[in-house]
Amino acid sequence: MSHRLWQVDAFAERPFTGNPAAVVVLDRWADEAWMQAVAAENALSETAFLVKESSGWRVRWFTPTVEVALCGHATLASAWVVLTHLEPGDAVTFASQSGPLPVTRDGDRLVLDFPANKPRPTVFPDGIDRIVGAPVREVLATQDHLLCVVDAADIVARLTPDLDRVAALKQWALIVTAPGTDQVDFVSRFFAPRKGVPEDPVTGSAHCVLAPFWAKRLGKDKMVARQVSARGGTLHLDMAGDRVRIGGRVVPYLDGTISASFYRAEPKIRISIS
Q: Which residue in 37, 63, 66, 165 is a FRET match for 46, CA 20 to 30 A apart?
């Protein structure tokens, strides 16, 4: 039994930038252990699995170690696969654990429509400067994210957080951010070692947290953000009430197949690179 697989660089301006995501298309839902094994084998921050149900496409996302409730870059990659190869068009809405997720084409970008996740001020965790690796000026939080604000973009780019201590934080994700430069409104980096992602190159879901914070701070709804990981990526943001529109470009990298039984935990992957 074979299943189509694509690998796509999301929020990328050119090949080998942005955040690579795998997209696997199934004709029915597979055993979760099999999907987790495929995600571990892919060794990317997320692998998306798609199934066409009676009401439309449903998406699920797996890191190399766990299933997650929301993922931006792998949804962008999934939309590219659907709109380019499966059902050519300009819009698709995915059913997901986080509700309906519309994606539309806007010129050479695809635009996610995600729920905003406004962070709230919180107490500074003990030793947060040492955990982050830089002086932290402000700390906010959601249920899952600790958002740390530092002084400058170059600090974000250079920092080396203590990932063991990041994994021990109450929230499973650490976002570090600062004002941007060179026509970028703000920069960030994202770390989630507890979920099997030491650092995510470009994180759409993190900008559901960052966009409402910076929109209020900067007094503007339309923003350009840059995630300053080693690969780097650019996101175009538009606040719309309790939703965030997150736009970015995608660059396809790989087109192949997975040949495996639904109930085996050792997927055999045959790949042709185009």
A: 165
Residue 106, both tokens: 């806007």
Q: Can you list the domains of the chain with their CATH numbers?
A: 2-104+249-272 (3.10.310.10), 120-241 (3.10.310.10)
Percent of the chain with pLDDT over 70: 94
Q: Is 149 left (phi over 0), alpha (psi -120 to 50) or beta?
A: beta
Residue 242 has which token pair? 């309790």
199 has catalytic annotation: no
How far apart (Å, rounded) are the C-alpha atoms in residues 219 and 214? 8
pTM of the model: 0.91
String of DSSP letters for 126-177: TTHHHHHTS---EEEE-SSEEEEE-S-HHHHHH----HHHHHTSSSSEEEEE
Pick the catalytic residue: 32, 46, 87, 266?
46
Average pLDDT across each block of 10 residues of the chain; the chain has 274 residues. List them in order: 92 95 96 95 96 96 96 97 97 96 97 97 97 98 98 97 98 98 96 96 97 98 98 97 97 88 50 48
CA dihedral over 86, 250, 235, 226, signed as positive or negative: positive
Per-residue model confidence (pLDDT) at position 194: 96
Tokens encoding 186? 């703000």
Dump pLDDT digits (tens) for 45-96.
999 999 999 999 999 999 999 999 999 999 999 999 999 999 999 999 999 9
Question: How high is the pLDDT of residue 269?
Answer: 53
CA distance 226 to 186: 7
CA angle 65, 66, 72 (to 5 degrees): 110
Q: How far apart are CA 68 and CA 173, in angstroms?
A: 12
